[in-house]
């Protein structure tokens, strides 16, 4: 953390003499690069600095980018209560972005991030259910987690469709902001497919009773189909999410063979 703060200070020193921030500088790319390297806390600090005197073109987008950084900080937090609190705060920020910018191309991405939070909180429910020793109580807890995953699955599917519609509406040749939106939405589209597959795998893990093997296998088959389509794009897109999807395909196959093995 001390190293991160030192790096952020260096960046701010470089920015300070200019007295202003220009929209044509790669601010968003820099922040997104920090998140991609597992430094969402540093990305959030950088974005908060930009938000003090933002370039006009970036002002509407910065709240969305800050919420995304905050969400990734929550995902990495090992404390369940703190993680949920951070996710709830990020959800509030995504909802505020949609209310303020209902027709913005990236409103679709904000809606997707909200659906991601629903799936992530389903995973928290699943983890807690697994720790319950009483069979009846665990059964009830697993059923609640299952409902959360089912709801999240519908939200993820709807969000993926909305993202694709926005991508289809971006002109082939547009402004630099349009190209930035296209890049962000394209990444979100791949992430939506990955999250749909993972959400289905986690949903299948709520079926642990005898006689539920068929339902579990049916859901795992759906997950494998979604993840396999994403993994097939790995050579064309060179996107790490496609390779991650391939790993999850293998995990789903192992789950289907041995549902009682230790979870990863």
Question: Helix and strand layout, with pairings?
Answer:
Elements: H1 2-15, H2 27-36, H3 40-50, H4 62-76, H5 80-100, H6 107-130, H7 135-169, H8 176-204, H9 213-231, H10 234-237, H11 240-257
What's the tally of helices? 11
Give the domain tally.
Answer: 2
- Helix-and-strand structural type: mainly alpha
The helix content, as a percent range, equals over 70%
User: What integer value in Å does the Rg equal?
Assistant: 20 Å
| Main sheet properties | none
What is the approximate shape? globular
> What is the end-to-end distance?
27 Å
Can you write the helix and strand succession as a string? HHHHHHHHHHH
Strand content: under 5%
Mean pLDDT: 87
The overall strand count is: 0
Q: Which consecutive residue ranges, at least 5 long each, have pLDDT under 50?
A: 10-24
Concise structural overview:
The protein has 264 residues and is mainly alpha-helical. The chain has 2 domains: 14-79, no CATH class; 105-264. Helix content is 76%, strand content 0%.
Kindly describe this structure:
This protein is mostly helical and 264 residues long. 76% of the residues lie in helices and 0% in strands. The radius of gyration is 20 Å and the shape is globular. Residues 10-24 have low confidence and may be disordered.
Sum up the structure in keywords.
single chain; 264 residues; mainly alpha; 11 helices; 76% helix; 0% strand
């Amino acid at each position: 953390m001390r190293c991160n703060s030192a790096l952020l200070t260096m960046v701010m020193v470089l920015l300070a003499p200019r007295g202003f921030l220009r929209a044509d500088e790669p601010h968003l790319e820099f922040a997104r690069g920090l998140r991609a390297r597992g430094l969402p806390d540093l990305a959030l600090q950088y974005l908060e600095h930009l938000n003090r005197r933002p370039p006009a073109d970036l002002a509407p987008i910065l709240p969305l980018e800050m919420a995304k950084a905050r969400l990734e900080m929550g995902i990495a937090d090992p404390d369940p209560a703190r993680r949920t609190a951070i996710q709830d705060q990020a959800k509030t920020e995504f909802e505020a972005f949609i209310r303020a910018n209902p027709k913005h191309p990236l409103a679709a991405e904000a809606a997707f991030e909200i659906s991601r939070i629903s799936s992530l909180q389903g995973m928290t429910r699943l983890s807690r259910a697994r720790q319950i020793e009483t069979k009846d109580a665990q059964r009830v807890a697993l059923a609640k987690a299952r409902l959360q995953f089912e709801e999240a699955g519908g939200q993820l599917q709807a969000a993926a469709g909305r993202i694709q519609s926005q991508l289809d509406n971006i002109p082939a040749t547009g402004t630099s902001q349009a190209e930035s939106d296209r890049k962000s939405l394209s990444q979100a589209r791949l992430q939506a497919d990955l999250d749909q597959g993972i959400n289905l795998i986690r949903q299948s893990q709520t079926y642990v009773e005898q006689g539920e093997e068929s339902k579990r296998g049916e859901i795992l088959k759906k997950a494998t189909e979604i993840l396999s389509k994403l993994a097939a794009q790995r050579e064309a897109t060179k996107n790490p999410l496609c390779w991650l999807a391939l790993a999850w395909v293998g995990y789903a196959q192992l789950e289907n063979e041995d549902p009682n093995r230790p979870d990863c």
